[in-house]
Amino acid sequence: MAQNDFGSAFVLLLLILDPFGNLPFFIAIMRQLPVQRRLPVALREIGIAYVVLLGFMWGGQGFLRLMGLSQPALEVAGGVILLLVAIKMIFSTTSEIFGGGDGREPMIFPLAVPLLAGPSALATVLLLTSRQPGQMWTWMAALSAAIVVTGGLLLMAETLLKWVGDSVMRAAEKLMGLILSAIAVNMLLGGLRSYFMH
Known about the structure:
Layout: H1 2-17, H2 19-30, H3 35-67, H4 71-91, H5 94-97, H6 111-116, H7 119-131, H8 136-155, H9 157-164, H10 166-196
Helix pairs in contact: 1-7, 1-8, 2-8, 2-10, 3-7, 3-8, 4-10
């Protein structure tokens, strides 16, 4: 039973983390950095996302109760943030999307949070632990495995960029911006619906 729970949670978390969907965002951020900084920054951001998700898995319910926050509020806030990122992706150049023009490295935002450790992922780990708190170690193992697979795919981003070419990737950035805007609006509406129908 535990093995089946692990497999189900692993697949669910991998779908929520969406490594293939995040590839264009990841490449857009990494291409602004010097080559020698890309791997350390990528590992750092993936690690931060893992720590955030792990922390939310262990203390998310208590934190929300302590702050008087609800899951709908989390969804609405995350939807607004992602919508702003999506709008910039669609209407700005790559260097403007993530503030790369000043040469600063991304730190936490936007790769670690909210693209990897976003509202959907946070809500998913909360759901797993609230429904079956006795299987915390199973959920931790599933999260760890999902992060390893996601991180491995994201670290192959530069190779994928060489395969598909720069112009195709720029078009993918605009397309992913459109898709992300739809996801953000859906998340925002879902949070509002949950709030008003509670």
